[in-house]
Design a protein that fits this description.
- The protein contains 20 helices and 15 strands.
- It has two domains: about 230 residues, Glycogen Phosphorylase B (Rossmann fold, 3-Layer(aba) Sandwich); about 210 residues, Rossmann fold.
- The protein has a seven-stranded parallel beta sheet. The chain has a six-stranded parallel beta sheet with strand order 12-11-10-13-14-15, with helices on both faces. A two-stranded antiparallel sheet has the order 6-7.
- It has about 500 residues and is of the alpha/beta class.
- β1, α2 and β2 form a beta-alpha-beta unit.
- The protein starts with 5 loop residues before the first helix and ends in a 6-residue tail after the last helix.
- α2 runs parallel beside α3 and α8 crosses α10.
- Its EC number is 2.4.1.-.
- Belongs to the UDP-glycosyltransferase family.
- Keywords: Glycosyltransferase, Transferase.
- This is Glycosyltransferase.
- GO terms for molecular function: UDP-glucosyltransferase activity.
Length: about 500
């Protein structure tokens, strides 16, 4: 309940949003900005010129609806970091060197963004977890910073537990030995080889430290998905303000870039795709997508293709990235493979984004093979689709554990080692493991039926959460009220 000066409390909040330059970070944060704008708050997104278009369609739709939402672009230091003009997003990178330069360039934007905000002070900053500097800057301005956590609370709990000096993984003799992560609500097992490397862990420690200084955390998800871990995080770790406001995909289904694909590059129209799916039995088709960041080698792509074919089940594959002939396998196999599966009506390969919401919402889809990016996992659960997990880097092995060991809505392919996104496929998973996982999730056995049942229960909870009076709807209301109370009472919130 907002108290303090009535005029202040009624005035719209002025909120600045700062994303991390990757489609998987930009899309959900832009949707959260839309949620604020739809409640009457005044929203500005700070970004760079080449990233404007990632926000633009959603923002233009908001303006058409009468929302107060704007974009302010800050010049990206391309020359200073040694990049051509226009390379400002990790989706533009094909190797670790380019990605490192993009990271460095975004770090250099801090000064100019701070100057803009000092000259045009907001009431609040909602910044991606990797924009760590915004916590100290918000304190300097005397305003709250909300962390946009692109993962889930379950992952944050695992990260903090692993950081303990008493964690069992520090005493293991082998990187491939399973150990139980201590102190959690469930006995979660993992190997040391599946943990992030030292450099990434250092960054995540800095993220955690900045989070401690923040006002709270907002997440694309719904509370019912990880209730025990929310309570654990609040009570055991002392973090009080956590707002799950999704699934954002259910609120803004038509704004997703995977819906707004170019018909010029589409191998089939949406109507043709629906007709193809209509011709398949329920729960008989596997959908495959590894997001915008993963750069699998040709060898790994070939193993995936062979595994899909060997499974005997029809499939849809959104293949965003095919490397040059980077290894002994090369990519000469792909045209023949595409032609063969088309001729035999076994599958469809999209060279780019597929209409993911349309696909996942079709009864023929029985499973979703994913890298375990959080957005993809939430989408699968929102539509009641079990998952086949093939994690690569970042938090993805942790998210895999949520799926396979807690929710039990999917199966692990058997990825064994953490690596960076641009080195994906360095430790390839075999075609045999791919085929086995597909069969396990699509076969009509008791285990598969159990996964489908649990996934559909999550779908029902997800849909209720975004309705008026649902948990995510109410969390958004509570977050806005807390921010207005902070402003009205000079930083004091009950």
């Amino acid at each position: 309940m907002v108290s303090g000066d009535d005029d202040v409390s009624r005035r719209p909040l002025k909120v600045y949003f700062i994303a991390h330059p990757s489609p998987g970070h930009i899309a959900p944060l832009t949707k959260i900005a839309q949620l604020f704008a739809a409640r009457g708050e005044h929203v500005t997104i700070l970004t760079t010129p080449a990233n404007v278009h990632f926000h633009e369609k959603s923002i233009d739709k908001g303006k058409t609806s009468g929302y107060h939402v704007n974009i302010h672009a800050v010049k990206f230091p391309s020359k200073e970091v040694g990049l051509p003009d226009g390379i400002e997003n990790f989706s533009h990178a094909s190797d670790n060197e380019t990605a490192a330069k993009i990271w460095a360039g975004f770090s250099m934007l801090q000064t100019e963004m701070e100057q803009y905000m000092e000259q045009n002070p907001p009431d609040c900053i909602v910044a991606d977890m990797f924009n760590r500097w915004t916590s100290d800057f918000a304190i300097k301005l005397g305003i709250p910073r909300i962390v946009f956590n692109v993962y889930c609370i379950f992952t944050r709990c695992l990260e903090e537990a692993i950081r303990s000096p008493d964690s069992p993984h520090l005493k293991l003799n082998s990187d491939n030995e399973q150990f139980i992560i201590p102190g959690l609500p469930d006995p979660i097992t993992i190997t040391r080889a599946q943990l992030p490397d030292g450099a990434f862990s250092v960054v995540k420690e800095q993220v955690s430290e900045a989070e401690l200084k923040s006002f709270g955390m907002v997440i694309n998800g719904f509370s019912e998905l990880e209730t025990e871990y929310i309570e654990y995080y609040k009570n055991i770790m002392g973090r009080k303000r956590i707002w799950h406001v999704g699934p954002l995909q259910l609120i803004y289904q038509n704004d997703d870039p995977k819906v707004q694909r170019s018909q010029k590059t589409a191998v089939v129209s949406d109507n043709e795709l629906v007709s193809w799916l209509d011709s398949k039995k329920p729960d008989s088709v596997i959908y495959i997508s590894f997001g915008s960041a993963i750069r699998f080698s040709n060898k790994q792509l070939y193993e995936i293709a062979c595994g899909l074919e060997a499974s005997g089940y029809p499939f849809l594959w959104a293949l965003l990235w095919v490397p040059e002939d980077d290894d002994d396998v090369g990519n000469k196999w792909l045209p023949d493979f595409e032609e063969r599966i088309k001729r035999e009506n076994k599958g469809i390969i999209f060279r780019g984004w597929a209409p993911q919401m349309l696909i996942l919402n079709h009864p023929a889809i029985g499973g979703f093979m994913t890298h375990c990016g959080w957005n993809a996992v939430v989408e699968a659960l929102s539509f009641g689709v079990p998952t086949i997990t093939l994690p690569v880097f970042s938090e993805q092995f942790y998210t895999e554990r949520l799926i396979s060991q807690v929710l039990k809505t999917g199966v692990e392919v058997g990825a064994e080692k953490w690596t960076y996104a641009f080195d994906a496929g360095k430790y390839p998973v075999s075609r045999e493991k791919i085929a086995t996982a597909v069969k396990k999730i699509l076969d009509c056995g008791e285990e598969a039926e159990g996964m489908r049942k649990r996934a559909r229960e999550m779908k029902e909870k997800a849909q209720k959460s975004v309705e008026e009076g649902g948990s995510s709807y109410n969390n958004l209301t509570a977050m806005i009220e807390d921010l207005k109370e902070f402003r009205a009472n000079n930083g004091k919130v009950a």
